[in-house]
Specification:
Blueprint (H helix, E strand, L loop, with lengths): L16 H18 L7 E2 L15 E7 L6 E8 H20 L14 E4 L5 E5 L14 H15 L10 E5 L6 E7 L6 H13 L5 E2 L14 H10 L1
Parallel strand pairs: 3-7
Antiparallel strand pairs: 1-2, 2-3, 4-5, 6-7, 6-8
Helix pairs in contact: 2-3
Length: about 240
């Protein structure tokens, strides 16, 4: 999964200290209002669903306060599992592109949805047309090939394909807060894992960081999220 920060005409980092402080105070109030849902340390627009399989909680977007009294951290938190799946998906996408390059000129956005009309000619709704089967993909659609290829890559990986490190990356190009992209080695993301991450980030001075040692291969998934999810549901 290739993640991009949102375009910001004016960044939070470029605001005056006074304006940053105002936004900080508002967030502090929001965290207090939502602490029964989340924690006294953070808030979010993403719900942590109770009763869901732990494997379904592999990422989280959240906001928390900086130690300097004016910084807001706009964080995306991923497990090592999710970072691994994202990296494998990128490999599968690149391999699909090498076999059959995707030409946007042949698939402009206005063709992504087809109109459906009623008996009187009235427009009812739009649907996405079925993806074409490609000979280069052995008669599969691009998505089917990528899904199948990702599963194969993971099963064949002995630890040399990609290395996943726990890390904290900072991006000051966000309109709201300072961007923080973090990978942590936990089975799933819950309130306790998020609180521990925030405390850990604060303990190192709210600085970028990367673990020297990669997450061991045996701790990473043995198949795609889709396959493991179905296996868990069946069990």
């Amino acid at each position: 999964m290739r993640r991009h920060r949102p375009f910001a005409r004016q960044t939070f980092a470029s605001l005056s200290n006074h304006k940053q402080r105002d936004l900080y105070i508002r967030l502090r109030s929001k965290i207090k209002q939502t602490q029964r849902v989340y924690s006294p340390l953070f808030t979010s627009h993403v719900l942590i669903e109770s009763g869901r399989q732990p494997i379904g909680h592999q990422w989280m977007d959240l906001y928390f306060l900086g130690l300097d009294g004016r910084t807001i951290w706009n964080a995306t938190l991923r497990t090592a599992n999710q970072a691994y799946w994202d990296a494998v998906d990128d490999f599968a996408r690149d391999q699909a592109e090498a076999l059959c390059p995707y030409a946007l000129a042949d698939n402009p956005p206005h063709r992504w949805f087809q109109p459906v009309y009623g008996p009187t000619g009235r427009l009812l709704h739009y649907v996405m047309p079925e993806a074409p089967k490609e000979a280069a993909f052995g008669g599969l659609t691009r998505f089917e090939f990528m899904r199948q290829r990702a599963s194969t890559l993971i099963q064949q990986d002995t630890g040399d394909m990609v290395q996943i490190h726990e890390q904290f990356d900072i991006d000051r190009g966000y309109a709201y807060g300072i961007g923080l992209h973090a990978v942590i080695d936990v089975p799933s993301i819950d309130v306790q894992a998020i609180d521990a991450f925030i405390q850990r980030f604060r303990s190192i001075g709210e600085l970028p960081w990367k673990c020297d040692a990669p997450v061991p291969r045996h701790q990473l998934p043995r198949d795609t999220l889709e396959v493991l999810w179905k296996a868990g549901s069946a069990g």
